[in-house]
Specification:
The two termini are 91 Å apart. Helix content is 59%, strand content 12%.
Length: 411
C-alpha cells in the first residue's frame, strides 16, 4: 500500500483495474486507482501520444463494485496526460454514459489536459446535467484539492473578474453545448438560443444554426435515399419472386407433361409386350403343328421325291417361324439405344426402314429380312438402295458398316 504525498491518501490498485491496448497507438494501458475510500483516479500509462478510440465502462463499474461505492456519487479524477485525440465514437460513448446514468458521477475533474484536447474537455463540461460538477485543473494537486473541497461542500466554481468575462464563458458553454448535442447526440432539431443582434458572438451561433440545418437536411436526404434503396430492393425482390414462381409453375407443367408421356409410353410398352406374347404363343403353336405335320409326312408311303419336297417345305416353314419369333421378341437395351439414336439422326426413316436397319446391324441376310417384312428378296434390295441414299451414304460406303459404327458414336 502506498500514498500520494499531496493528499496523504492511500492508493489502492488491482490487476483487474487495468486494460491493455496493444493493437492501436503503439500500445498503452488504461489504469484505474482508488485514492482513499471513494476517489477514483483514471489515467493512461504510455510514453507517447495516444488517441482514445472506445471507452471501457465495464472496468470503471468493476472498480466501483470492488470498492463498494457503486451507490455513492462518484468522484473521478481524469489524468489527460499524453492524450492528444479523442474519437467521435468515444465522445458519443461519453454522452451516453452521462445521460444514461450508468454511473452516478458527482464530480469529474480533468487535469494535465493537452492543448489539442482542451476544447473537447470544455465541451464535455458544457453538456453535463446541472447536478454534475465538471472542473478543469492544471495538475494533480489542484485536482485533488478541488475534489476534497467539493466533498466538504465548499465553493469550487470559477470566480469571474468581470461581468463581461462571465458572459463570455456562459456564451461559450452554450455554444459548445449546442455543438455537442448536434455532433455527439444527433439532436438535429434542438433549439439554439441566439444572442442579441449587436452581440459579437452572434455570427458564431448563426454559423452553428446553419450547420444544424445543413446536417438535418443531409440526414433527411440520407433517410430518403435509404427508403428508396429499400423500395428498390423490395421491388427487385418482388420481381425475382414472380420470376421464381413462374419458373416453378413451368417446371410443374413440364413435370406433369413428362409424367403423362411416361404413363403413355408405359402403357404402350405393356401393349407391345402383350402383343409380343401373343405372337410368341402363336409361333410356338404353329411351329408345334408344323412339327406334327412333318412327323406325319415322314411316315407316309408316297413317292420319295414328293415326300422330300413336302419335308423341305415344312422345314423351311419351321425355320421361318423361328426367325420371325426372334425378330419380333428379342429386342435388347442395346438394340433400343441403337434405334433411338438412328431415329434421332435420321428422322426421315419410317418404322419399317428402322426395323430393317436393326436386322442389318444384327447380321441377318437379305432373304431372312425380306421374309420377316413380307416382301420379295428383290424388293428388299430396292429398299436397301433407297435407304442407302436416305442416310446420305456415298456409292462406295457400306450401309451395314455405317449402322455398326453408329452405335459407337457419341451424341
Amino acid at each position: 500500500m502506498s500514498t500520494y504525498t499531496v493528499s496523504n491518501m492511500e492508493i489502492t490498485e488491482s490487476p483487474n483495474w487495468r486494460t491493455s491496448h496493444e493493437d492501436s497507438n503503439n500500445g498503452y494501458q488504461k489504469v484505474v486507482k482508488r485514492l482513499g475510500e471513494d476517489i477514483i483516479l483514471y489515467s493512461v500509462e504510455a510514453d507517447h501520444d495516444i488517441s482514445l478510440e472506445t471507452m471501457n465502462i465495464g472496468m470503471l463499474q468493476t472498480v466501483l463494485q470492488d470498492s463498494k461505492i457503486e451507490t455513492k456519487p462518484v468522484c473521478l479524477l481524469w489524468n489527460m496526460k499524453n492524450i492528444t485525440n479523442i474519437s467521435l465514437t468515444y465522445k458519443k460513448e461519453i454522452a451516453n454514459l452521462i445521460y444514461n446514468r450508468r454511473v452516478n458521477f458527482g464530480i469529474v475533474v480533468f487535469f494535465n489536459v493537452e492543448p489539442v484536447c482542451l476544447t473537447v474537455v470544455e465541451t464535455f463540461a458544457a453538456i453535463v446535467p446541472e447536478d454534475m460538477t465538471v472542473l478543469i485543473k492544471q495538475n494533480y494537486t489542484e485536482a485533488v484539492n478541488a475534489t476534497l473541497a467539493w466533498k466538504e461542500d465548499l465553493p469550487v466554481g470559477t470566480i469571474y473578474e468581470s461581468a463581461e468575462e462571465e458572459k463570455y464563458e456562459r456564451q461559450k458553454n452554450e455554444f459548445l453545448s449546442a455543438l455537442a448535442r448536434i455532433s455527439w447526440l444527433d439532436m438535429m432539431e434542438q433549439s439554439i438560443p441566439m444572442p442579441s443582434n449587436d452581440d459579437k458572438m452572434l455570427p458564431f451561433f448563426q454559423a452553428i444554426s446553419h450547420l444544424q440545418s445543413d446536417l438535418l437536411e443531409i440526414s433527411h436526404n440520407k433517410e430518403q435515399e435509404l427508403r428508396q434503396i429499400e423500395q428498390d430492393g423490395e421491388k427487385t425482390l418482388t420481381e425475382k419472386n414472380i420470376l421464381l414462381n413462374a419458373q416453378k409453375e413451368l417446371y410443374k407443367k413440364l413435370k406433369n407433361q413428362l409424367e403423362k408421356e411416361k404413363t403413355a409410353l408405359t402403357a404402350r410398352i405393356a401393349t407391345q409386350e402383350m402383343e409380343l406374347t401373343r405372337i410368341s404363343t402363336a409361333v410356338v403353336e404353329k411351329t408345334s403343328a408344323l412339327r406334327q405335320l412333318l412327323d406325319l409326312i415322314t411316315t407316309l408311303d408316297i413317292d420319295q421325291g414328293q415326300k422330300r419336297t413336302m419335308i423341305d417345305i415344312c422345314s423351311n416353314m419351321i425355320d421361318t417361324e423361328l426367325i420371325e419369333k426372334r425378330l419380333n421378341i428379342e429386342l435388347t437395351t442395346t438394340d433400343s439405344e441403337f434405334l433411338s439414336k438412328l431415329q434421332k439422326k435420321h428422322p426421315n426413316l419410317n418404322q419399317r426402314e428402322l426395323r430393317i436397319c436393326l436386322l442389318i446391324k444384327l447380321n441377318y441376310n437379305t432373304r431372312d429380312i425380306a421374309r420377316s417384312v413380307g416382301i420379295s428378296t428383290r424388293g428388299m434390295e430396292s429398299i436397301r438402295y433407297r435407304m442407302h441414299k436416305k442416310v446420305g451414304l456415298s456409292k462406295h460406303q457400306s450401309l451395314k458398316s455405317y449402322l455398326t459404327e453408329l452405335i459407337m458414336q457419341k451424341d
